[in-house]
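Chain particulars:
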Amino acid sequence: MTTTRPAGPAPMVLDVDDWTARRAVHTDRVEQLIGPYLQARRTGARHPVLDFLFTYYSSRPSHIRRWHPGFGVVLTGPDADTADFLRTRGYRRTDPGAADAGVTVDPAFLASRSRALATTAALLSATAGRAPRLGCFGLHEWAMVYHADETRHDLPLRLGAAGTDAVVESMPLRCTHFDAFRFFTDDARPRNELNLTPADRLRRDQPGCLHATMDLYRACFTLTPLLDASLTLDAFELARDARDLDMRASPYDLRNLGYEPVPVETSAGRARYVREQSALTERGTRLRAEILHRITQLTAAVPDPPAH
């Protein structure tokens, strides 16, 4: 689901009825996406698929639950309604004497994030400029438990340890994403066609990679509140769907949690993986372009430094 968002950072004034209605739509969408998960999380329950989106990315549910209008939008209304934004980093009041007095994202905060905008744009542009590679078959999760005494998740392996190792040994490892490769076991790393380093995030990330697609969520929430919340939620929803395939194609057995495996150890399973991977790649390509477009607009709106 993709919601309608403001065209860019051009000034826009929303009255209290308008922006509270938009916030309510956002809240409902979050509830539809992960409401039961968030409720279970409050009781301390753990989820091996969805927890990743908060633990690995050092994210919090508030990153997607809190509504932001994005840079260049003024929210008007009684102080009691807008005060919550002023308790959030990056906001300020507009001129109290203006007809459209309210709260907005501070241009000074935008200026302070100019380096983050540039580095995010550089990575997303480099990734977008490469052809998708669809031949990894999700084997990064298998490589993370190859010849391992312990697994990364408290879940059984569908094929057992020996069967899992045999799958890794039967197919080439073609991981292009350093942040997945760094969790390979010592015995698995030499089996990968690339010996990846941190510099390969910029040199190797490509749009067919599930993890590069999931990373669009991080790109959005780290630029909060410059980007509007619906864009971040679009990225979260895509990351959730990519993580779903990531774990269904993994060596773990998640059937007790309702996840049917994509058995990449078979030709039919690999074909299914590529079909689902291709669909996620297409969604990621569109979203990556939208994020880059928004960053370009934000970069153009960065105020000039004061003259000395």
User: Anything to note?
Assistant: DSSP finds 13 helices and four strands in the chain. The beta strands are 12-14, 73-75, 91-93, 103-105. The first helix runs from residue 16 to 42.
